[in-house]
Write a structure and sequence with these properties.
Number of strands: 14
Distance between the termini: 42 Å
CATH architecture of the largest domain: 2-Layer Sandwich
Number of domains: 4
Amino acid sequence: MTERWALAPTEHGGAAIAPLGPDGRPTAPVTHEPDLAEAVRSRPEATRWVWRDTHSVHPRLLAAGVRVDRCYDIEAAETLLLAHEGRHGEPRSAAAALARLRGGPVPPDPPPRTAAPGSQSSLFEPRPPVDVSLADLLDVYADQQRRHATTAHPDRLRLLTASESAGMLVAAEMHAAGLPWRADVHRALLTELLGERYAGGGEPRRLAELADEVSAAFGRRVRPDLPADVVKAFAQAGIKLTSTRRWEIEGIDHPAVKPLIAYKKLYRIYTAHGWSWLQDWVRDGRFRPEYLPGGTVSGRWTTNGGGALQIPKVVRRAVIADPGWRLVVADAAQMEPRVLAAISRDPAFMEVAGQDGDLYQSVSDRAFSGDRGQAKLAVLGAIYGQTSGDGLKNLALLRRRFPRAVAYVDEAARAGEEGRLVRTWLGRTCPPAVNAADQEEAGIPQDDPDDPASGPPSTYGYTSSNSRARGRFTRNFVVQGSAADWALLMLAALRRELDGMAAELVFFQHDEVIVHCPRDEADRVAEAIRSASDLAGRLTFGRTPVRFPFAVASVECYADAK
DNA sequence: GCCAGAGGCGCC
DNA sequence: AAAGGGCGCCTCTGGC
């Protein structure tokens, strides 16, 4: 039985609390406790805590060693509800929600905090702690309950709100735990790849050598990190480029190409994950990024500083379990096509996605006479909105064999082009279209209406190219976002599965989790991941034959997981 | 000196 | 084979 309590921090580390009845209203007067963590610790019967925002409460509980089972994050809920109501840009703070409820002036949201590099403390800097009283907070909560109930699928949106709240708990816990990071291994790797640094500063040896090779190949001094310089050098060699992107340079027959590409790859590691990154972000053997659940419109998480979701594969060699411990690395195999099967309920596609094996191989056996590469391209093209090339031809094949799956994303694309909103399976809602006049005002250049390449004029007030771009966005949104719905439930389920074990969730990246655990817990953790996946599939999509298998590896080093 | 935007590339 | 979706973050540039 869920017993709900509401909590609001007060000055000097205290808290106002109240027990809630089944209707979400307090069943006893608000009481004041001198110690927030103790107030929670002494009420193990409370299985869900309702509070303004997880960020300003949970780190204090973690620091005091207090675990909460579940929470309801009012500001996360407000964000989801506003988007669902088509009011994506409105302020989402509890104070703003209260002002809308009472008809007062709505305060703008505070500017987003920027994480101090490597800080342990950014999570502990509370916003103005008590800008809304507990009684007022509970009025906002009651109103949110009402708004959930008025949606087309209240159960789904409630589930999403609960999961988003659970994600907030996980985010704070992963920040506190940190990803095991061996600075000594990272340094050795940097020296191996980039060479020694010179005492006077500047680029490390290997980068300087590659820059010299590029210059030698052109017969003049060229700075490989300056695109304009590279384009000019190629032009002088008789080769016209529109950019210096790798895919454009790769095919060119010129001696500068090889060292240039090598330079770009190493330069990236040097600037984004090199010595200064290490200095800024790794403390006491842990990398602690600040995770922002729902940081993107589709519901995927972002991180604030440290580039935690873009760790280059080669750098993962520095992610090493503590002695006697393991990293259980689990990757959801072909998550997005499986999600498309579940949300479209295409019978043939569900059958393919109902097996744990290689989905692309099954698709190709059915529609592409065994050419797995073509099948994968077609499926990804359908999800991403391929507009040209072989993908289109393959898309036609896919449509014949899996008509409902393709129709589902086509409809999402049409909705986007027509300026309508689309939603994920659980109800996360895309932002509204921005009309052409507003874009012009914001400095976004518009198509030339006289340009035949920009197509016929649209009837929706958007240039056709903008409209098509929004179609690609909404097409992808329903799949990527529903996959994020599922991943969020999986994460919440896994958090509960791990309760009582020494194992800790230490990383989450869209369709992949890492759990750090004692060696003899690794098998139980792998089993917990499978249970969490099954439960998430059932809870998110109801009865469905679609399976969401994980590739699970128990390793000492992250780089060995694949 | 600050800031926004562009170019580029890492991850999914 | 072509360059579709979502992000964060780095450098450099050019305007103020």
